[in-house]
């Protein structure tokens, strides 16, 4: 039976303490360690050998790096479930691949599951996060023998190639089952730091070649290689205290989790909170911040609003918007929202956005222009900017890059991702970031990997962007009430016609003599009017 993530997240909140509270401990009232969150609560599967299983330096199964990764993510509200039941001591890459091909069912070791057994392929299909640690057991027999008989180069090359091929097959099969899953492949550390200096030199050369091969294989399959060599080498005595055992101590596993895996995992797009917040600049001294409600196992009690890392306000959990007053004009600010629960846990992955207030400006070339009021509002709200010579140039056409930037600023959208366009590299970092935000939030699409940033944007293209912005803002499609009033857009597709009709019905555009002029370039003055009217309809 399959259960929803919401149900399993609640279960995880209760079951996760098995990893942190010793068996037999008296805990009538479990403390709430789960922080509120805005991000995906992931299902985590650990695959591999004894390192994933958690065997320590004396040959006893305990807390391995996967357990410490799960604990840290779960305490931050990032995990729904965790299972290392498919990781077994002594497993080679062939064992892992065979389990995957045979779709084995094994006991669950972890938290967040309602049954005590799980099937491997179904678990992979439901997972957002997988770690893979395999390959050491493919080489260990040969390496151990080398300490007495000398290194058998041919045998090592053969075993290494087989291990790499198996890892590639494992990753390919996982991606076939779940193309979106994030996979992190563990690199090798020096398991034999106590061997002779001569052997050390050869082992290090071998490890370098193996890690480079695994990294290439992982990245080719869309996985992420996680190096551990340097982490373990920092404190060999503490992390590998038993010269007769290749397994890490608990301190070693903790170091690998904290210093290698967690930084890589936390950089995942799974936990990008940029879409959970938006800022609308209202004037040169004010802005409205809106955010999505956070989730928590017990419930959010309030939100802390930070402005430039200083607590600005604390609001009740029912409030998800705030107006920032008395700001300085033409100044960049960073606003962050932290969710707090009844136990005092504060969200870790929290939405943050930067914005710049508008300037109190009087452009030299708009004194008698029909759009003067709209231009000033657009500038004061940070939507549009003038030129260094003090002009606005209202009759100049706007480009696709400028249109994307203007709309992103007006909605307060941000992203940590990069745009996939090959023709924006010559633009400054701010403009590239704004185009990336427009793409990440679905406002622009591009074609054949290009955005054509310098091309003037037509009135029809701008209408499409505005329509997508409406859908983004209200999380629903605008339904037109009447037929389009314009006679010159009948040849366009339904999406474009609906977008233009939406602007008309919302009172944002009026056209001229029953015509919209969809192919005409958009002037800066018209863009100012459209953006100001649109932003006011969104309030």
UniProtKB/TrEMBL annotation:
Residues in SLH domain copies: 358-421, 422-480, 483-539
Record keywords, A-Z: Signal
Domain of life: Bacteria
Signal peptide positions (record): 1-27
Sequence ranges assigned to domain Fibronectin type-III in this UniProt record: 273-360
Name under which the protein is recorded: N-acetylmuramoyl-L-alanine amidase
Listed InterPro entries: Cell_Envelope_Struct_Comp (IPR051465), FN3_dom (IPR003961), FN3_sf (IPR036116), Ig-like_fold (IPR013783), SGNH_hydro (IPR013830), SGNH_hydro_sf (IPR036514), SLH_dom (IPR001119)
């Amino acid at each position: 039976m399959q259960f929803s993530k919401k149900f399993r997240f609640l279960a995880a909140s209760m079951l996760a303490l098995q990893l942190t509270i010793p068996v037999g401990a008296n805990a009538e009232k479990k403390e709430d360690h789960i922080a509120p969150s805005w991000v995906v609560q992931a299902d985590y599967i650990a695959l591999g050998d004894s390192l994933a299983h958690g065997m320590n330096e004396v040959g006893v199964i305990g807390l391995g790096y996967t357990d410490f990764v799960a604990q840290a993510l779960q305490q931050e509200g990032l995990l729904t479930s965790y299972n290392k039941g498919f990781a077994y001591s002594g497993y080679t890459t062939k064992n892992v691949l065979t389990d995957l091909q045979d779709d084995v069912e094994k006991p669950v070791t972890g938290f967040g599951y309602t049954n005590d057994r799980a099937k491997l392929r179904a678990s992979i299909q439901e997972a957002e996060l997988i770690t893979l640690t395999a390959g050491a057991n493919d080489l260990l027999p040969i390496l151990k023998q080398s300490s007495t008989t000398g290194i058998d180069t041919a045998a090592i090359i053969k075993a290494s190639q087989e291990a790499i091929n198996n890892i590639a097959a494992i990753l390919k099969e996982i991606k076939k089952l779940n193309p979106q899953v994030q996979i992190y492949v563990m690199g090798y550390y020096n398991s034999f730091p106590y061997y002779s200096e001569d052997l050390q030199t050869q082992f290090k050369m071998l490890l370098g070649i193996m890690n480079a091969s695994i990294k290439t294989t992982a990245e080719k399959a869309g996985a992420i290689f996680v190096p551990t060599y340097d982490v373990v080498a920092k404190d060999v005595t503490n992390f590998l205290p038993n010269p007769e055992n290749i397994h890490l101590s608990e301190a070693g596993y903790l170091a690998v989790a904290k210093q290698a895996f967690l930084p890589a995992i936390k950089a995942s797009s799974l936990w990008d909170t940029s879409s959970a917040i938006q800022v609308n600049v209202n004037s040169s001294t004010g802005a409205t911040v809106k955010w999505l409600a956070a989730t928590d196992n017990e419930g959010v009690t309030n939100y802390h609003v930070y402005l430039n890392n200083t607590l600005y306000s604390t609001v009740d959990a029912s409030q998800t918007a705030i107006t920032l007053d008395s700001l300085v004009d033409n100044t960049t600010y960073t606003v962050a929202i932290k969710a707090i629960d009844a136990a005092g846990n504060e969200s870790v992955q929290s939405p943050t956005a930067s914005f710049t207030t508008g300037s109190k400006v009087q452009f030299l070339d708009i004194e008698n222009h029909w759009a003067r009021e709209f231009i000033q509002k657009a500038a004061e709200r940070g939507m549009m900017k003038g030129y260094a010579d003090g002009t606005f140039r209202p009759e100049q056409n706007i480009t696709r890059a400028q249109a994307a930037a203007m709309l992103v600023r007006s909605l307060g959208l941000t992203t940590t991702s990069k745009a996939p366009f090959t023709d924006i590299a010559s633009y400054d970092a701010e403009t590239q970031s704004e185009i990336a935000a427009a793409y990440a939030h679905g406002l622009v699409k591009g074609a054949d990997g290009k955005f054509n940033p310098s091309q003037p944007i037509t009135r029809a293209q701008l209408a499409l962007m505005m329509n997508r912005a409406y859908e983004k803002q209200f999380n629903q499609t605008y339904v037109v009430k009447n037929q389009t009033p314009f006679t010159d857009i009948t040849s366009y597709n339904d999406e474009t016609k609906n977008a233009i009709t939406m602007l008309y019905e919302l009172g944002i555009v009026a056209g001229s003599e029953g015509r919209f002029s969809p192919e005409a370039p958009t002037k800066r003055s018209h863009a100012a009017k459209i953006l100001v009217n649109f932003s006011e309809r969104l309030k």
